[in-house]
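Take a record.
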Amino acid sequence: MNELELKYGCNPNQKPSRVYMEDGSDLPIEVLNGRPGYINLLDALNGYQLVRELQEATGHVAATSFKHVSPAGAAIGIPLTDVEKKIYWIDDDTELSPLSCAYAKARGADRMSSFGDFISLSEKCDADTAKLIRREVSDGIIAPDYDADALEILKEKKKGAYCILKIDKDYRPAPIERKQVYGVTFEQGRNEFKIDRELLNNIVTKNKSLTDDAANDLMISLITLKYTQSNSVCYVKNGQAIGVGAGQQSRIHCTRLAGQKADNWYLRQSPKVLSLPFRDDIKMPDRDNAVDLYIGSDYMDVLADGKWERIFTEKPDIFTEEEKRAWLDGNTDVALGSDAFFPFGDNIDRAAKSGVKYVAEPGGSIRDDAVIEAADGYDMVMCFTGMRLFHH
């Protein structure tokens, strides 16, 4: 199939809409179920590139959760800890393949942003992964293939209308890409830059102890940034993105936004949050919303009299700022990537508050010396990659 007609473009008034291959070849995707939209396909094609590169770089299967053309989460297939299972609402006896672990991490890192996501998988979707997807609010999925039982499980979502795409794993696009803005055609070479371990060899800080696990996390952060709307930064820990800051005009705002998401991910693991007494009839999305409010500054929206009774069996204690800070101080060895150089040391100061130990950024600022000095002040390991990763 060379062309796929769509219901509309980014918005319902933008008609007609289609995707097609200019060279007359077949589309690399096949619609197995449902009807994809314009934004669905943007998410699917960007997300699949991300997970394909993650698998190539790390040797692990990978998954990502996309919303509005940026990843809300991305991860490789490392087993979940018992605490991670709890914060992702996964029962202890649930069978988890490596791919389902990758998806659980990608979907669970920022559950608020991942609500209604488009999922990309680097390998054939198995039943374990499909069962996790079945219980989540999601718009669709793209993968190279599907086990028969996994396909049947997914087809049941959204009353049979769930969007399921199959992509040709051997497809490789042309080296030149084009798009139009206001009737003007833009053309550029595709960003085929390969992110691997060698990219991290230029360590500019006094501390040069870059472990293999940390290098893996830095590669995950950089590959995630390669497909995130710029400006962007990405915090990673234990094989998963835990905070992505996308599309901000100021880099410090990216660092703060992503850092707050990383903090929220870690706060969800605190005993106070794990022991929240939810009523049995509260569904997962409502639990996610309640947790997000409880750990934030608007906690009275769920703790005020007349409100907590709708969510909890008993009124939880306030999670004080002092308690939160004490808990966050236990988050260590976090990796941070940036798609362009840090212009000021304030980015490093903010990163340190979220447990960052390892940093990868292009370098090249006139203030590089000050940024390196700031990193040295926290005994961080910082690599200059020499490569910018803007994505628009």
About this structure: The mean pLDDT is 96. DSSP finds 14 helices and 15 strands in the chain. Residues 10 and 84 are 35 Å apart (CA to CA). The first helix runs from residue 38 to 58.
